[in-house]
């Protein structure tokens, strides 16, 4: 690092194009001529200068006048640092460094634009993505925040900070996240300009996750960007759970002093009841429950958010939502790909912890809970907790587990789970599980809730299937030409893909004879609504901004969820239950069908292909 030395009482005329600003401790800005030079000896002011190359232009985005953030496109700058209090001798001497840390980049550029920033009392929203260089941040979080900005749902004054150990320049950081930002298909106008404006509000700070000093530096940079306005701050922890606690502890130094601070925590929330309780206890040492937003992105999906609307605003459904009319409920999740290099992480958790204990159990709770007193977050979550407390703890006899194996199909070889180099040799971690659950309350007594989830299956699909009881003394039994199962009324809620809700009803086939057919009353979202559905992360991040915790998991809710599955998980591990092997790309192990048959149930997703093909034909 080269260094230049000058006297603070003299202008830096020997530097080409230097713009000088004084920053006082209270955050105000003054020209050097308005501040006594002698004050620099007490370290109460700092001179920060930017070296602007000949002919360079300073770019600013054309955003609202109340917040004009700078575009960082400099290569070099000069920073004048005041002497420390312990310094002796000539206290009017300062040191100007060229090409310093990223924090000074931000300070310099903000100071360059201070005359354009109208510091009003309007609150600034600052979002910090911790783990900003990771895949989740790049592929989901930053695109979701941009989508909220593009839709006009973010506050007028906002800024985004990335924080991670990796070192980036500001431009490198913006280039990285710009690769995954996309605009709505149905609202593509003005996409490029909004893209540029959004990036100009993004900043980066590198630092260690266990360093209070680095988080203090982050706080200082955020205060510069916030320019003295009151601020609310959100910290999104896109990091491994092993470092949740140190990050939360250190982030306290960067909490807002003029507004609220909220922290988003990604799953997994522990591996079992004990580890989950320890994590919650450690988080609560530094945060209140009101500040913690445990995010399960599945709850942000459109059809999941619609569950309470479907139930509680349609008289035709709510009276039927009982054991008297419903024979079984199925919640099904399948992915057509395997672990693909993430086997080491997955092997530590398995399919039950990764999908069933959180995504699908939360879906079940929303589906089966009693009507809440109101749509207030606490009222909704109270009912979910009551539901979870009434669930029966499953045993090994109530589960079927599997693991996908290598297969050769049409000349293409698909690897098995154990072929993943990151997976321990001989692992018996299940990549597929089917579980029968029961709710011991008056509404659902005796109704089996069958849940299954798996990787490397034949299709990507998630849905809820409600199979109703057969009509007693059916008058048309001899006119169907179909089995009794095919006459079942069934409500299907397709979560993904091709979001839809359809009801299977029996209908007379047109003609002179009397023959019945099982037909569908079909609501397809892509045909009914001419809009692109928002990503789950968009909905949930917006809920955090608005303080709506309805779709987030409370600590006692998490505890009850782990009470259901921890005994089963420990039993599977202690008995070393061997998973049934199933070919990559198949429908899963045969054991899942035997499990369903124990409760006189046939998996409804066997009809998926026929329905999907019918939909495709109708579109053509």
Quaternary form: single chain
Q: Largest sheet, if any?
A: 9 strands, mixed
How would you state the average pLDDT, rounded?
78
Relative helix content: 25-40%
Helix/strand structural class? alpha/beta
Spatial ordering of strands, largest sheet: 22-21-20-19-13-18-17-14-23
Total number of helices? 17
The Rg value, from CA coordinates, equals: 29 Å
Distance between the termini: 66 Å
The shape is globular
Strand content: 15-25%
Low-confidence stretches: 1-102, 112-119
* β-strand number: 23
Characterization of the model:
With 620 residues, the protein is α/β, with parallel strands linked by helices. The chain has helices at 102-112, 135-150, 170-178, 191-200, 212-226, 244-251, 273-283, 302-305, 307-312, 343-347, 350-368, 377-389, 525-528, 536-546, 555-574, 591-597, 608-619, and strands at residues 3-7, 19-24, 29-30, 45-50, 78-81, 93-98, 124-130, 158-164, 202-206, 231-237, 261-266, 292-295, 326-334, 399-405, 407-409, 412-414, 432-437, 449-454, 461-468, 490-496, 500-508, 516-524, 580-583. The strands form 5 sheets. A 9-stranded mixed sheet has the order 22-21-20-19-13-18-17-14-23, with helices on both faces. Strands 9-8-7-10-11-12 form a 6-stranded parallel sheet, with helices on both faces. Helix 2 crosses helix 14 (536-546), helix 11 (350-368) crosses helix 12 (377-389) and helix 12 (377-389) packs parallel to helix 15 (555-574). Mean pLDDT is 78; it is low at 1-102 and 112-119.
């Amino acid at each position: 690092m080269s260094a230049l030395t000058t006297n603070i009482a003299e202008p830096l005329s020997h530097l080409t194009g230097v713009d000088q600003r004084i920053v006082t401790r209270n955050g105000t800005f003054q020209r050097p001529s308005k501040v006594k030079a002698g004050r620099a000896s007490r370290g109460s002011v700092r001179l920060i200068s930017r070296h602007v190359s000949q002919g360079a232009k300073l770019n600013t985005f054309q955003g609202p006048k109340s917040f004009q953030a700078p575009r960082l496109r400099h290569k070099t700058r000069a920073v004048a640092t005041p002497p420390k209090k312990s310094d002796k001798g000539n206290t009017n001497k300062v040191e100007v460094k060229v090409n310093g840390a990223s924090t000074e980049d931000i300070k310099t550029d903000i100071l360059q634009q201070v005359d354009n920033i109208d510091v009003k009392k309007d609150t600034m929203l600052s979002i910090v993505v911790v783990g900003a260089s990771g895949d989740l941040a790049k592929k989901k979080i930053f695109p979701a925040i941009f989508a909220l900005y593009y839709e006009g749902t973010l506050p007028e004054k906002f800024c985004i900070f990335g924080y991670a150990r990796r070192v980036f320049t500001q431009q490198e950081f913006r280039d990285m996240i710009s690769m995954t930002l996309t605009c709505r298909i149905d609202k593509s106008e003005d996409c490029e300009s909004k893209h540029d404006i959004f990036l100009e509000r993004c900043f980066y700070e590198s630092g260690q996750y266990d360093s209070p000093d680095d988080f203090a530096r982050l706080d200082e940079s955020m205060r510069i960007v916030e320019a003295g306005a009151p601020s609310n701050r959100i910290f999104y922890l896109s990091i491994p759970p092993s470092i949740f606690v140190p990050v939360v502890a250190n982030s306290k130094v960067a909490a807002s002093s003029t507004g609220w601070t909220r922290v988003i925590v990604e799953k997994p929330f522990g591996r079992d009841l004990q580890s989950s309780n320890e994590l919650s206890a450690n988080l609560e040492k530094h945060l209140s429950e009101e500040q913690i937003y445990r995010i399960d992105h599945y709850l942000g999906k459109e059809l999941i958010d619609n569950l309470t609307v479907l139930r509680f605003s349609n008289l035709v459904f709510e009276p039927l939502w009982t054991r008297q009319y419903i024979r079984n409920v199925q919640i099904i999740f399948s992915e057509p790909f395997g672990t693909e290099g993430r086997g080491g992480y997955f092997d530590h958790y398995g399919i039950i912890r990764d999908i069933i204990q959180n995504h699908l159990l939360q879906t079940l709770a929303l589906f089966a809970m009693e009507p809440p007193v109101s749509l207030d977050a606490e009222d909704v979550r109270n009912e979910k907790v009551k539901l979870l407390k009434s669930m029966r703890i499953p045993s090994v006899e109530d589960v079927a587990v599997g693991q996908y194996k290598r297969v050769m199909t049409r000349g293409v070889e698909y690897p098995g789970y154990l072929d993943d180099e990151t997976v321990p040799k001989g692992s018996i971690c299940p990549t597929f599980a089917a579980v029968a659950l029961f709710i011991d309350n008056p509404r659902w007594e005796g109704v089996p809730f069958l849940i299954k989830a798996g990787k490397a299956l034949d299709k990507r699909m998630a849905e809820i299937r409600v199979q109703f009881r057969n009509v007693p003394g059916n008058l048309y039994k001899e006119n169907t030409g179909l089995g009794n199962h095919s006459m079942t009324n069934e409500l299907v809620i397709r979560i993904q893909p091709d979001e839809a809700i359809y009801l299977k009803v029996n209908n007379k086939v047109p003609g002179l004879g009397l023959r019945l057919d099982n037909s569908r009353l079909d609501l397809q979202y892509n045909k009914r609504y001419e809009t692109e559905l928002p990503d789950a992360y968009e909905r949930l991040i917006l809920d955090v901004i608005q303080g709506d915790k309805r779709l987030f998991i409370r600590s006692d809710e998490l505890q009850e969820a782990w009470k259901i599955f921890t005994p089963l998980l420990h039993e599977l591990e202690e008995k070393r239950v061997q998973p049934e092997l199933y070919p990559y790309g198949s429908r899963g192990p045969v054991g899942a069908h035997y499990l369903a048959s124990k409760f006189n149930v046939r998996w409804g997703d066997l009809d998926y292909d026929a329905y999907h093909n019918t939909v495709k034909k109708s579109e053509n």
